[in-house]
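Notes continue from the previous slide.

Worked example: a multi-chain complex. Inputs as given:
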Amino acid sequence: MLSRVADSVFWMARYMERTDNVLRVLRTNYIASQDEIQNFNWKLWVDGLGANSPVSELEVNGYRDAIFHLVLNKENDNAVIVNIIRARENARAVQDYITKELWQCINEYYHLIQDKQTEVSLLKNDPVTTIDKLLKESILFYGTVDVTMSRGEGYTFLNIGKFMERSLRTLDILELKLIEMVSGGNEAMHWKYLLYSLSGYEFHTKQYKNALQMNEVVHQIIHNTLFPHSVLYNMLQVERYFKRLDTISLPENFKEMEFLIGKSVNGLRYGFNSSISVEELKEQISHARKEIKSIAYKLSTLYFGYT
Amino acid sequence: MSLKDFISDYSPKANVWDEMCAEGKLRTQYQQFFDSLTQVSSNDFLAKDELAKKLFMSQGVTFTVYSDGEGIEKIFPFDIIPRIITATEWALIESGIKQRIKALNIFLRDIYHNQFILKDGIVPAALIYSCPGFLREMVNVDVPFDIYTHISGIDLIRDSDGSYYVLEDNLRTPSGVSYMLENRNMTYRIYPGLLPKNNVRSVKDYPDLLLKNMLNLSNVQKSKPTVVVLTPGLFNSAYFEHSTLARLMGVDLVEGKDLVVDNAKVYMKTTAGLKQVDVIYRRVDDEYLDPLIFNPSSILGVSGIYYAYRKGNVAIVNAPGNGVADDKSIYPYVAHMIRYYLNEEPILKTVPTYSLDNPEHFAFVFENIHKMVIKKTNESGGYGMLMGSAVGESEIASYKIEVEKNPRQFIAQPIISLSSVPCFINGKLQPRHVDLRPFALYGPEGIELVPGGLTRVALREGSLVVNSSQGGGSKDTWVLS
């Protein structure tokens, strides 16, 4: 397939995945903040839920501000609306390649988030109702991909983008939680909300059958391959989909990528220790993130024609 | 509400051919249309109108208007009442267009090779050499199967007596065919079951015919030629059409930066390296096609593509240099071409045309300016024209100064009133002026037309300008069998 098209499909999937992650975290934190006596640190989440952006100049006083910045503020690079616009622009650039159903799905998501009514209900009424409505659209996206897209190269790049983005987001969210915890609060509650925002709380109670404790939570988030948001699970998916490119790739490109992905997977599997101090954990997170990003970078030079 | 009540308000203007009514009575084809509807009331039509708008929006059949750096999505205005063409009318249109395209294609072959038509004095040589669409680079270039006009859109209008006139030939990169297809898809949704009841012929074949022609054009020694659609990109107003056609034909949609020329062959950049391209349906204008030959600042084209084309390593659809045949100052000679090349009488009429570099014509035109329309020969989209009936003396005076500067660039034609059709506007049926653009496909197996085309409507009351950039909309076009 065309390099440009592969690139666009890859990024379309990444932006959609990012959208989904931001909404899930926002939903959980909003509920958490309703439950808390002390001031919830919204500023941290608004700045942190992007692609490692530095501390912004956005003013965040309370949850309505946070919702505005994270969902509707077009000036904020990490906002859901910006991600959806970008996903749609990418989809538009490959409209002939993706299915008509998929294009319509993203297009309708775009019109929903642009709708005045969405803004009003997010900022004036119960935000959870609207966030749920938005999340439904993103679930629809995954379903439409699954049911309508041909299992060719495009589908492969789409999935590589999706899983790579999800593993990065999981690392980010874990790191932000570690930062937030420094300022105190009930530790178990922190872990609980962290797992909620990754849709993994029920999973934890069923799998670990234990009171929440750091090493088990971190194990689930990094290592548990049954958990769809764990970093290792996602990188194994990246590996699995990448292997499908074997027959169509130039051999030397394939080898180089295969090495990088394998290195990252093994680093997570054998090099990432979940029973350590918070500081060491942060170091491991940033190392893992660096490795995943180098994969994305190589992909863009070897497969998407960037030089 | 009965049909009678619903259409009782409808009053077409005098001296205008109305497609629905004749002497206060419905024509048979529209009678049949209304009879096949179960309910006829303005509320029913209002609901259909709403549905159509919603569907266009959610399907993303839109164009973007940029203001203050922010894009606003708009849908192309669509009117829900179909324009209906009878089988006999279509037979005439079809044969007339085929004849015209055939002659124009021979003309292009001739003008870029032996130039018999100039030597025999049928068309003045000065006219050709002063035409901006004439590409010296195309002289003595042999194109595959001698076909230049693979895809053409011929604009037709009807005078007050109902006869069809050709208003314009579009032989470069005519657009609008995706709206023909989308408008038909809309009809399925808003009028369930109505198309078979009315014996409407299908337009669905268009992408298949186009693909078949392009596959046939490529080097015959290849079993599976690679066909692509070349678009200027996302920000082009016809981008929707480019991606629709690519999707319907199942071929890659490429931009200039996706292509590269090496050793006089064209390749596209894929995830698995370079892949050779055999046929390009380009929607990029001649001028931007190859920065090495034409506009050097173009980033929409591909360096070296023209060389590959001359070597015969890639087929380009439509051929470069077609602008010399659809120039407005060449238009009056097309009837002569048909007689000269085919020894036939033109089936479709042409509008009398005055070239303003002829002093007699110039004087005549400005004496009768209120009955005239002046157009620029190399502009399209309804830009740069002057409707003598619609403007004041001062505008005419300043336009006249413009014309005097370079009269070769202008032609004048008597204003033809254009036929009217009913449109559903503000809850009732109102007559609006229309034209018709059928699309003709010319491949190695001959010229084919899908039964239909794009009906463009001037939605402003009384307006005669149907271009979408000037407040025009469109309708589904039904050709009955």
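Summary box: Chain A has two domains: 1-148, 151-307. The CA atoms of residues 37 and 185 of chain A lie 10 Å apart.
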